[in-house]
Amino acid sequence: MILRLVVRTAALAVAATAVVFAATELLPGDAGQLRTPGRASAQDIARERERLGLDRPAAVRYLDWLYGVVRGDLGRSLSGGRPVAALFAERLPATAVLAAAALAVTALLTAAALGVTYLRGGRGGSAATGLAAVPQPVHAAVLGVVFAGLLGWLPAVSLLPPGASPLTEPEVLVLPALTLALPSAAFATALLRGALGDALRRPHVTDARLRGLPAPLVLRRHVLPFLYVPALQVTALLAGGLVAGTALVETVFGYPGTGQLLVSAVAVRDVPVVQAAALLPAVVLLLGMLTADLAAHRAASAPRVTKGAVTAVPRNVGGGL
Amino acid sequence: MTPRTVPAPAEATRRRTPPVAAGAVRRAVPVAAAVVLLVCVPLGRYAAPHPPERTVAAPWAPPGGEHLLGTDALGRDVLSRVLAGGTHLLTVSLLTAAAAVVCGTALGLTAGWTGGRTAHAVRALCDLLLAVPALVLALVLAVALPGTTAVVVAAVLSGAPLTARIVTAQCAHLRDSGHVLAAVERGERTSAVLVHEVMPALRRLVAADAGLRLVTALQIAAALAVLGLGPQPPTPDWALMLSENLPGAALNPMALLAPAIPLAGCAWMIAAAARAAARTPGETG
């Protein structure tokens, strides 16, 4: 079973590379045409294509690229000619810090919102689903107006001086991380609220209450175990979405990470960079899913937890790009 | 209500159930509001007091006077741009959501009804398409396609699988229900069974799902517009205005808030309508 899950994840990862490669293959005028000036002769274009290896069939180029990706060779950027792997190594720490900060804030906000839901007896209002539906640029704009415009507490643009790390200048992290965390927390709350409500309505919880157990003990021993697996599943979904969301947030706030790299590469049609930058969120999503599935598998085979604890979380909330 | 005093489930359900009529009205309000909004937004352009693409005053003029919401970086009237700026976003999102729901429902009905190998193939296809986050897929497609096309293709490719999943599950469940079995035994054609027996039972589910697909499409369209891959300046567009006016957050905050409010309002109302549609009659949830 565990082996099957791992094999499935590996197959999906390969599938993700195929999707990404196929999407960039749609480019009507290929890179050979784009990299040469407008009045280049057909011969020049052909020579450029040959130089870039674009004259080979798509399947061969895909396998060649995939073999490179597996070895960690992501090709060279079409603009500038630097190795894509080096470009990434430069920017990955900034994005990792941002995503981790956003995930931490998301966890705090979600825990608080679920606490409120718990106090209301497992019922929730429409705020979470509504907030999760609001497009991320709106969150960015409103946070920008409040913190950078009206209060003037934070920089509206999160530029980092060269060589500086977001860990030494934490104030540049605040707006991007909050923008990522607000809709994520709303999304997580909306998804987990159902699981919390279900857990609270289980007969053994009512029984524990009627036996007069103190509420914190009921919560810890009889309710929370049912939230463990759904919470992991939601975290996996969120991790992929957060890394994808950095593309928007980093560009809006000018934060120098891999998301910004992806967007700027799309603008100049730098295909090798786009391919690599697109694989990153996909891999994070798949690894997160694998972790959640393995945890669900463990919970299902543990004798103490009943089968009902391992229900899949439905993705019935708009949002979570 | 504190958790300690939660009544037994049966009692709780009975007490919270309102009269049927009240429930119906409650469910209808968000749906009606969303529909009214979708009709009004395209008409906004004609209510604009100034030409939305022309410079009419000094840049970053504060709200008040002739320009109710002030002006933006190029001295264009913010109110006029907001009134004119929602059509593209909503049209794209509506078309995309409709396409995603139709494709997803067709896939889901096929898989759920046929079962076996077809269902496996459909599930594998769905997993494959969901392996890449929607926003990233849209960005990758935007390398080759025009921004709007990329939004539509990406949102359909990553929305249809989600619809297909829930329709498959529900359809497989319905296939064994009494009224469907009866229709099959009567010798009705499969297409007739699907259209007359299965689809009506899926109506609520698909309607709620359509709302969620609409929300996602709106988010992707807004994100790509902000990244400069949607409508190009000087076209008035809510999402584009958000990125254009961010530098003036301190000078004229209304230039940012004015497009943010209708955009958020649309998304919020669509989500509320989807929630209302998903609710079974009599349940207040």
From TrEMBL, chain A:
The chain crosses the membrane at residues 96-119, 140-160, 172-192, 226-253, 273-296. Residues 92-296 form the ABC transmembrane type-1 domain. It is a multi-pass membrane protein. It comes from Streptomyces minutiscleroticus. Residues 1-22 form the signal peptide. Keywords: Cell membrane, Membrane, Signal, Transmembrane, Transmembrane helix, Transport. Belongs to the binding-protein-dependent transport system permease family. SUPFAM superfamilies: MetI-like. It is found in: Cell membrane. It comes from the Bacteria. GO terms for biological process: transmembrane transport. It holds the Pfam family BPD_transp_1. Gene3D superfamilies: MetI-like. This is Metal transporter. One of its GO terms (cellular component) is plasma membrane.
Automatic annotation (TrEMBL), chain B:
InterPro entries: BP-dependent_transpt_permease, MetI-like, MetI-like_sf. It holds the Pfam family BPD_transp_1. It is a multi-pass membrane protein. Keywords: Cell membrane, Membrane, Transmembrane, Transmembrane helix, Transport. One of its GO terms (cellular component) is plasma membrane. Residues 90-274 form the ABC transmembrane type-1 domain. One of its GO terms (biological process) is transmembrane transport. Belongs to the binding-protein-dependent transport system permease family. It is found in: Cell membrane. Gene3D superfamilies: MetI-like. The chain crosses the membrane at residues 89-113, 210-230, 250-271. This is ABC transmembrane type-1 domain-containing protein.
